[in-house]
Amino acid sequence: MNDSTPATGIYNGNDKKKFKGDKSSCSPSRVLHLRQIPSDVTEAEVISLGVPFGKVTNLLMLKGKSQAFLEMASEEAAITMVNYYTPATPHLRSQPVYIQYSNHRELKTDNLPNQARVQAALQAVNAMQSGSLAVASAFAAEGGPFPGQGSVLRIIVENLFYPVTLEVLYQIFSKFGSVLKIITFTRNNQFQALLQYADPIHAYYAKMALDGQSVYTACCTLRIEFSKLTSLKVKYNNDKSRDFTRLDLPSGDGQPPLEPSIAAAFGTQNVIFPSYAGAAGFAPAMGFAQGAGLSVPAAPGTLTSLAVTASAVSGQMTIPGVTDIPGNSVLLVSNLNPEAITPHGLFILFGVYGDVHRVKIMFKKKENALVQMADAMQAQLAISHLNGQRLYGRVLHATLSKHQTVQLPREGQEDQGLTKDYSNSPLHRFKKAGSKNFQNIFPPSATLHLSNIPSSVTVDDLKKLFASTGSTVKAFRFFQKDCKMALIQLGSVEEALHALIELHNYDLGENHRLRISFSKSTI
Fold it and tell me: How far is residue 364 CA from its own chain's centroid?
C-alpha cells in the first residue's frame, strides 16, 4: 500500500476473499487482517491480541464490517502471532476472531476520522512496553480503556481436574509481563492464587486475555479479578509461594501460614495450602506454535522449560499426540514380561496417572496389553511417565492404541482371566474433583511417598515389608508433623515400580490400607 491509496479504500475486499481459500495464499506482512470481531469490542481489546507478540504500531477498526487491521512493528512479530493463532483461534468477548496476513504492507490512517482513541490506546500500550506508566495512567484517569487497578490479581481455578501448579501459572501469566510474586493456596476446596505483576497494565492485559479461559480442554477454568492487596509478601520460595525477585529466601519446612494481610482479605476459615503441589509430570508452557516457545528465566532449582504447547487465548491447552486420535483413551502397552505382569499390576501402575477402567493382556501374545484410561488426557499423562521405564527386567513401551475401547470377553469365551473391568474400582485416585491426588502426580522415582500408616506400624515393620518385595531400602523417614505419612527410598526406580505394584493398598491392620505414590523428594 502507498500514500496515493485513498484512505477510505484500504479495505477492498481482497482480504476477505482470501479467508475462504488457503490460509497461506497471502504472503507474510506485518499488517494483519482480523475478521468477525464483535461490534462492541474496544480498541484496547483488539490491540491486546498482539501485545504478547511484540509492539503494535497501528490499528484500523472497521466495525461496520466486523473487521480490523492490526499493524505490528515487525514482520517477524506478525508471523509469530499468525503461527500462534492459526491452530488456536482467539476469542474476543466469547466470539472467535480469525486472523490472517493482509495484502497491505503498512497502514496509512493519518487522514481517517475516529483515530484519536486508537492512538491513545497505542500510546498506553507503548508506555507499558517501555516500562513507563505515565501515559497509561493519564489515559486511565481520562476514562480510557485501562482501569486504575493495582498490579495484584486473584486467580481462582474452577473445575480443577488436572494439577495447576505455581510453575504453570508463571508460564501462562509471564506472557503478559514481568511476574514478581505468586502465592497459591486452597480455600473452600478451590485452588487459588495471588499473582503480582511489575506494573498494573500487565495485570490488566492478563486479566482481559485470560479470564474465563481453561488451562486444559474443558477443565481448570481461570476466574481472574483484581485483588484489593497492593503488594504480596512472600516468606518462602517453594511449590506454594515464590518471590522471583528474591532467590535467597528459604524453602521453609512446614506449610507456610498466610500473611495476615492476605488472610484478612480472604477470611481465615478453610484456608489450607495444598501439600506437595509441585510441578506436574506435564506442565503446560505458554508457547508459540512451530517451535517458537517461551523460554522461562532460570531461577536456581526452580523453573525449567516445559514441554506442552498451549493456547490460552483459545481457552484450552493441547498436548501433541492426544489430538491425533480425538478422545482416544486406550493405550497399547508392549514388551511386557509375561511371567511377571498381571492385569491387576497394570491397573495399579497406570492408576498412578489416571483412573484405569479396563485392562486386557493379549491372549496369544502376552507381551502386549491394552489399558483403557478414563480419558485421553490421562492416557497421554501415563504415556509421558511410563513409556521407557524398566519393569520386571524389560523396557516398557506405551503408546496410543488404534482401539477406542477395550472389549470384555463374551460369555463362555476362553480368557484365562486376562481381561478385567475396573470401572467401579474403589482404588481410583482421581474420581473426586479437587482431590489432592491431582497435585501429587510425579514421574517414577526411587523414592516413594507412603500414607495411611497406622500408629502401631514401626520403621522396621515397613522396611521389612518393602524388603520382602526384593527391594533394597536405602533410606526411610516419617513426616515430623504427620506420622501417618513417610518417605522410603529404594535401590532403583525399577524396584520402586515393583514395590508400588505389590504393596499399594496393602492391609496394614487397624482398618488401614497403605497408599503409595511416587515422590519428587529425596531423603
Answer: 40
